[in-house]
Task: structure prediction
Amino acid sequence: MRELKYSQALDEGLCQAMAADPGVFVLGVGVDDPKGIFGTTLGALKRFGPGRVFDTPLAENGLTGVAIGAAIEGMRPVLVHARNDFLLLTMDQLVNHAAKWRYMCGGKLSVPLTVRAIIGRGWGQAAQHSQSLQSLFMHVPGLKLVMPSTAYDAKGLLIAAIEDESPVIVLEHRWLYDHAGPVPEEHYRVPLGKAAVVRDGADVSIIAISHMVVEAKKAAESLQTEGIDAEVVDLRSLAPLDVPAIVASVRKTGRVVVADHAWRTCGASAEIAALVVEHAFESLRAPVRRVTLKDAPTPCAAPLEKLYYPGASDIAAACRDLVYGAKTQTAASPVESRPRAKDVEREFQGPF
Amino acid sequence: MSISSSSPHRTGRVNSAVALDLYSRLLRTRRVEEKIVELYPQQEMKCPTHLSLGQEAAAAGVCAALRQTDRVYSTHRCHAHYLAKGGGLKQMFAELYGRQTGCAKGKGGSMHLVQPELGLMGASAIVGGSLPIAVGSALAAQLQGKDWIAAAFFGDGAVEEGVFHESLNFAALRRLPVVFVCENNFFATHSHQSARQPADNIYQRAAAYSMPGVRVEGSDVVAVYEAAVAAAHRARSGEGPTLLEIRAYRWKEHVGPNFDYSMGYRTKEELDDWMARCPLRLFEEEVLAQALCDKAQLERIEKALSEEIQEAVLFGQQGPDPTFHDLIDDVY
Result:
């Protein structure tokens, strides 16, 4: 199959969703500028023109309301933010309005809104351009949330998000944008709420989110050489969460590491750990482990970033602990992932 | 284009049909809310009710200028907008009584009345919250070449919210078919406008966004109607939004059926002064004096409305309770 980069897959998915439904339009700060949100809106702009892909004032909350209004009227707006962090400006419209309009109206009206936002990392982006805020949105009934980790899922989940009747937030990780993978040329959907077992294993389950799926796969390969057979589950959707898939994996392996590049306290990892205990306690052969960020804002300096972000070696260490019964718990550690020959992320440089 | 104007000259008399229409909308709002005042102490309507008694002319005048297909986006104080746009009484009382047969299946209550087939697209209880949503509705009309316009109702408090400016800015930028209807009743809960805003000039804020701003005397339903007709025409003809500041007065407490001048944040004299300018009574006197309709016609409207209200109250009181299925349905 033909390969596309994650960013190209988003661009193509957006174009195909717009071709399928004239009610789909794209708005957001910079969606029609020469860079086009790292190239993800350029195809749509070229093909459908400024009438359906247009810039907005810097009014994130108001424009979220505008998109909600258009969605209530039956259109399918795709609101794009270059950074996840800007969603915090839109919380009133997202949480008080988008998530609740259908319910408050007794189901008479829906909000088929898609909100895309990008999680930044590295090159010193610091505390306000790199947050992973998925747990905030998971907490709110009425919002759906997906975090694709592959080019295939980026296209299929974006199309599914746009075609869904509920507000769906698509959180994309900037470091995934240059990852290439097989992507069908035709229009297709990846169902919301379905996880994918991306690597079968018998000894330990790594439940991973977004970019941590990349790290989890590296960790599993490394563990294989040591005789540990790790299963990797890419959650893909965080709301709704695929509880049966998580439980099935845990029942199979009896050990769980949850890997999330977000804060630990009340994070998605906490919810997943709780679900595992509620639904598969009798299968657990070891405590649930979490590999997350430290509970601190993102630092700027490169040495601090290196300390801040957990990676494959942290996941692998957590898996070893579970299999061999170590006593210490690992969060972020200074150990670097094993360098690889063709690693797009190692070529990643600023400016963004 | 005149950017802002205060108390525009009333262009003249309305005809009999418009007069009856305005009267019906005013009366409907007044009598329904009087019924709520009567029944609320029974403690059976278990939801906060923000009444519009005294400020009905804003809703009546604006909604009379709208078509059935035009959209209304409302606030926590949404009864008058719902009623003036023609919202069903049975579904409304059932909603207030928390019934499955309510307009929102009992999940919205007094602050979230809705009837999409009449353009009543919902109401937000977050101050200013429905403003950008109305703008989005207008954007949808513009993008799809539809002929509806959107009316965004809000209070004087919403003017202090950032989203007010975000909404006016975007609507003016794209010349969207929306009418911003500020009902300035001078109080945000118990806090007077003068304690919250440096000047009493809401309608003049429109100038910053190059749109007309018009101040209207809210006791005069014809003045409201005429201002709304002009704003609706402007919106529908592609010229863009208008900001109306309708100065009206909430007779009752912020939330609930009682008078509250005894709290001390406003005076009985101030209330009496506004009640002396009751929009319903003033208009009734006007239509009779001008012989736009006769007393018997008004009495027939009153009688039919009274029967409709009685029936609706019973429908609401006797409706079925929502179930567990309703609790978890309509989330997604």
User: Anything to note?
Assistant: Residues 328-341 of chain A have pLDDT under 50 and may be disordered. The first helix of chain A runs from residue 6 to 20. The CA atoms of residues 6 and 92 of chain A lie 30 Å apart.
